[in-house]
Amino acid sequence: MDIEKSILKRIQKLLALAKDKGASPAEAESAMAMAQRLMTKYKIEMANISDDSTKSGIRHEEFFSRKGALNPADNCIINILLRFYRVRVLITHEFGNRGMMLVGTPEDIEIAKYVHGYLRTVFFDCWNTYKKVNPRADRNSYYRGLSYGIIEKLEEAEAQAKSEESETACKNYEIVLVNTKEAINNYINEIFGSRVKNERSRRISSDSSSYHAGFAKGTTVSINQAIKE
Fold first, then answer.
1. Residue 150: per-residue pLDDT
2. How far apart are CA 107 and CA 7, in angstroms?
3. Pairing state between β 88-94 and 97-104
4. Ramachandran quadrant class, 137 (left: phi over 0; alpha: psi -120 to 50; beta: rest)
5. Distances in Å between the alpha carbon of 47 and those of 22, 40, 177?
6. Torsion of CA 100, 105, 109, 112, to 10 degrees
7. At what angle do helices 106-133 and 208-218 cross, to 10 degrees?
8. pLDDT 10s digits, 186-196
9. How far lies 186's CA from each of 31, 46, 183, 189, in Å?
10. Rounded distance, CA 36 to CA 39, Å?
C-alpha cells in the first residue's frame, strides 16, 4: 500500500537523522521517540480503516547473523522489538553462526529491521563513550540499563500518540494487536512447529553503577518535538 510505503520512508528518515553526524544532539535524541509515536499513530489509523490486521500476510525473514553468540546489545534490542514493533524474533543457529529471524507483516518487518540497525549504532556509540571515562564499567549492565531507559521513553511516546486518539480508536487498535499476535503465533506453529525453542535465560553479572548510567542515558531521548509531514 502507498500509505505503508510513505510511513516507512518517514520513519527511515527519522532514524537516518539520528545517525547523521551533522544532526544536533537534540535532533538525534528526538528521532527514535518521534518514529515510535508516528508508528503508533499510523497503526491506530490503519486499525480503524480495516479490521483485517494481517491483510498483507504474515511472513518470515532472516536478516542478521554473526559468528558465535549474539552481541549483548542485540539481546537487549530484541526485547525492544518484541515490545513495540509487532514482530516475533526467532534466533537461528547454523554453521557456528547465530542470527535473527523476524516474523510479522512485511511492513512491520521492514520497520523492525531499520530500528534494529539504528539501535545497534546507539548502543555501541553510547557504550564506547561511557567506557572511555569508566574503564571498569560492565557492558552487559550498561546495555541493560540503556534498554530500559529507551523503553521508558518509547512508552511515553506511545502513550502520547494514544492520548490524541479516541477511546474507540484505541480499543480497535488493541484488538488488532491481539489478532496480529495470534496470527504470528499460528504462522510460527504451522511453518516451524516443534523446531522453535525458547532461548534459555543466562545469569549475567550486574553492576549497579553501569546499569544506572545506561538507564539515565536511555531516558535522555526527547519526545517534545511534534511529528510533521
1. 87
2. 9
3. antiparallel
4. beta
5. 37, 10, 9
6. -110
7. 130
8. 999 888 876 56
9. 34, 22, 5, 5
10. 5
